[in-house]
Specification:
The complex is a heterodimer.
Chain A: E1 33-35, H1 37-48, E2 52-56, H2 66-71, E3 76-78, H3 83-95, E4 99-105, H4 106-112, H5 114-122, E5 129-133, H6 150-155, E6 161-163, H7 168-180, E7 185-189, E8 193-195, E9 211-214, E10 219-223, H8 226-239, E11 245-249, E12 252-254, H9 258-266, E13 271-279, H10 284-295, E14 303-308, H11 318-324, H12 329-339
Parallel strand pairs in A: 2-3, 2-4, 4-5, 5-7, 6-7, 10-11, 10-13, 13-14
Antiparallel strand pairs in A: 1-8, 6-12, 9-11
Helix pairs in contact in A: 1-7, 3-5, 8-12, 9-10
Chain B: H1 14-32, E1 34-35, H2 37-54, E2 69-72, H3 78-87, H4 128-141, E3 148-153, H5 160-171, E4 177-183, E5 186-187, E6 190-191, H6 192-195, H7 201-207, E7 211-216, H8 220-232, E8 239-244, H9 252-255, E9 263-264, H10 267-279
Parallel strand pairs in B: 2-3, 3-4, 4-8, 7-8
Antiparallel strand pairs in B: 1-9, 5-6
Helix pairs in contact in B: 1-2, 1-3, 1-10, 2-3, 2-8, 4-5
The chains are: A alpha/beta, B alpha/beta.
Chain lengths: ~350, ~280
């Protein structure tokens, strides 16, 4: 429950953290990053793919599409702050043989433009690539900008591929894979200075494949998006307590790599934790739970979810909110220790 | 090879085409016993002029790259477009009796995946104009000479997405886009203007930087003139032809029904309607 707006909050010691800009960097203070990996990867690919065009609804700069717009001004279409038009015009461009990338914030695509994505794009299986910044809890601006249920909305949509990459290394590989795939794709985009993590693990992205980033005997974390980065930190932290954590990264949420997930859970002897930057309703956690139930595979040491609660979340500073809602490295490590 | 302007070089008048489109539509309506027949009768003259005067296409190759595109935003008008596509030779006439049936290529609401010549999936109203904007932008990228026509209804003027598309078409100077609004004055819940007042309509589109014409949508000569002007207008604006039509046109006892958005027609009335239509046939 939220505090009444008529109740004055007590002064915070030291003032507390500030919300900062709309899009705060997810990178820790010493973390390696790459600038605008989506924009640069798209520019590179567009050199050999003249069918690629870019469309945005007044958010090119905040979805890294401005990099593409600067490189190919005549292939960039500013559709204005009109997300329904953005999606229907992208459908029309796809009908004429182009491969449009349509970008906005995840809240606006999922909530405002859903009918257009559903009927103008997905029902026709058109080749529109929807790349959306601010997935899940990646801004402190409150529910108007926090797309905590975007995966739940798009999982029910036939033909739609849903991608939730972890870092800059992966995003660079995701862009050409999205174009190689025939059909609509929804990308949960991390933009700006994006952390660089998975290159250290020799990871390569394959659409539709879940991959073990590190193996461990006690806990199996199944994660997507930025939560894989968090899970790897948690694994290091728990290793100090002699707890051995495996991290299975699932960047393709739909279609789900059922075979890999089932074979990892069937190994047994591990607590299964699904971690996602999304509400616990209708996302990766419930997708995995449903899969396990249908297959009759019950994790012998239990099944848990690390994800956002079924609530409208607070405004505030991102580190505060990630901690409050259990998806910071520290909060996740605390939860897993408690479950063991 | 089939002609790309199938209407030229024949002696069939546009009035005769419109009569035949109405007749095909009535026969489809009879299959279901009810439906959007009043809209179909009202829009037949516009479809006759579109398919047999204005547009370029190949009946035997509905996806021919150089065709003019015709988008049906109002999915429930499918019965009317099927009638036009049958008359144009894109759909065989003997499929008419499958209208709205199981496994038919002619579902009650128009869908691109079902029917040759159906460019888009309509029905969730307010989609067509935005898709047409994307197609028009795409055609310009390809340096195509084709036009995109989008037929939408006065009811769709309630949808915000229609105006998002209208503003963008004006901004992008889409002179290859021809919008056709069917102002038949009736929506699901009653008279269109009593639901939300979209008038004055012509100045609205003019204010969105469109080249605007408003005509009697059941006057074939006026439609021919308006479609010619829309295609040949030298300015860079997108073009709109606002067509005031009469629901049920051509069958007076249907014109007079008050609640005619989804008409229930008694079994014996279909033959009566066809008889009246046949009597009014202008060769």
């Amino acid at each position: 429950m939220r505090r009444s707006k008529y109740e004055k909050p007590a002064p915070r010691q030291g003032g507390g953290l500030k919300t900062s800009a709309m899009i705060a960097s997810l990178a820790g203070p010493d973390q390696r990053t790459k600038p605008a990996p989506f924009g640069h990867a798209l520019v590179k690919l567009a050199q050999e793919r003249p069918d690629i065009v870019g469309l945005s609804a007044d958010l090119a700069k905040y979805t890294d599409l401005h990099i593409f717009a600067q490189a190919y001004p005549d292939r960039f279409y500013q559709m204005g702050m009109a997300e329904q038009l953005l999606m229907s015009a992208a459908a029309g461009m796809a009908r004429e043989g182009f491969t449009p990338f349509a970008t906005t914030y995840a809240v606006f695509a999922a909530r405002r433009a859903y009918d257009f994505i559903c009927l103008a794009i997905a029902e026709e299986n058109l080749n529109v690539k929807i790349a959306c910044a601010l997935p899940g809890l990646t801004t402190g601006y409150g529910p108007s900008h926090q797309a905590t249920e975007d995966v739940a909305i798009f999982r029910g949509l036939p033909n739609m591929t849903i991608l939730d990459p972890c870092d800059a290394h992966e995003i660079e590989q995701v862009v050409p894979a999205m174009v190689a795939h025939q059909g609509p794709v929804y990308l949960r985009l991390l933009r700006g200075n994006v952390p660089l993590v998975l290159d250290e693990y020799g990871y390569t992205f394959e659409l539709g494949k879940a991959k073990t980033i590190r193996d461990g005997r006690d806990v199996l974390v199944i994660s997507s998006g930025l939560m894989t980065m968090r899970a790897l930190e948690v694994a290091k932290s728990l290793a100090e307590d002699k707890v051995d954590v495996s991290v299975l990264h699932v960047p393709t949420i739909k279609p789900l790599d059922e075979a890999t997930i089932l074979s990892e859970v069937r190994r047994g002897g591990r607590l299964v934790v699904v971690a996602e930057n999304h509400t616990v309703v209708g996302g990766l956690g419930e997708a995995v739970a449903g899969l396990l139930m249908r297959a009759g595979v019950l994790p012998d040491r239990g099944f848990r979810q690390v994800g956002l609660p079924d609530e409208f979340l607070d405004a505030g500073a991102l580190p505060t909110l990630h901690d409050r809602y259990g998806i910071s490295t520290e909060a996740m490590a605390r939860s897993i220790r408690g479950w063991l | 090879m089939a002609t790309e302007r199938p209407h030229e070089g024949t002696n069939v008048t546009l009035a005769e085409r419109a009569y035949r489109i109405r007749r095909h539509a009535l026969l489809m309506g009879e299959v279901q016993g009810q439906g959007y027949i009043a809209q179909a009768l009202g829009i037949s003259d516009v479809l006759a002029v579109s398919y047999f005067h204005a547009m370029t296409y190949r009946p035997d190759d509905p996806e021919w790259e150089e065709r003019d595109r015709f988008c049906l935003s109002i999915g429930h008008y499918a019965i009317a477009l099927y009638a036009a596509l049958i008359e144009a030779g894109i759909i065989p006439e003997d499929e008419l009796t499958s209208y709205g049936g199981d496994d038919s290529r002619l579902p009650m609401s128009g869908m691109a995946a079902y029917t040759p010549g159906m460019e888009i999936t309509g029905g969730s109203l307010g989609h067509g104009l935005g898709i047409a904007v994307g197609m028009a932008l795409g055609l310009k990228r390809k340096n195509s000479k084709s036009f995109v026509y989008n037929l939408f209804s006065d009811g769709e003027l309630d949808e915000g997405s229609t105006w998002e598309a209208a503003m963008s078409a004006g901004s992008y100077k889409l002179d290859n886009l021809i919008g056709i609004v069917d102002v038949n004055g009736m929506q699901a819940d009653g008279a269109s203007r009593s639901i939300l007042n979209f008038e004055p309509l012509a100045p609205k589109f003019a204010a969105f930087n469109w080249f605007v014409q408003r005509v009697d949508g059941n006057d074939i000569d006026a439609l021919v003139q308006a479609f010619d002007a829309a295609r040949n207008h030298p300015g860079p604006e997108p073009r709109i032809v606002i067509c005031d039509t009469t629901m049920g046109k051509g069958v007076p006892f249907l014109e007079q029904r008050e609640r005619n958005h989804f008409l229930r027609v008694e079994a014996d009335e279909w033959q009566q309607a066809l008889k009246i239509l046949d009597e009014g046939r202008v060769k």
